[in-house]
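Quick one:
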Amino acid sequence: MSMALLILGMGLCSFLPRYLPLALFADREMPPLAETLLRYTPPAVLAALVFPAVLAPSGNGVELTLTNPYLIGGVVTFAVGLVSKRFLLVTAVGIAAFYLSRWLVG
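Output:
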């Protein structure tokens, strides 16, 4: 029983903060400044997730070396993304660059 209550509580803690603002402010117009700032939320969250994994994969500080396959894969992925803007191609080339650099470095 306590496990079911725990799961229900976790679901509510995840659901309510997302739903309540939508329910309470759905009929109101958002201020232009808030709208502008909210446009930067997805790229900021993505950068916060990706950069630590690419720059410090071992968790022992920043590794800006050519022996860091995460950095090489990230740079190649970013460059291909800027040029092609095709998600599947960017993903495939990024994965290939990561594994190739990991294989070459040893």
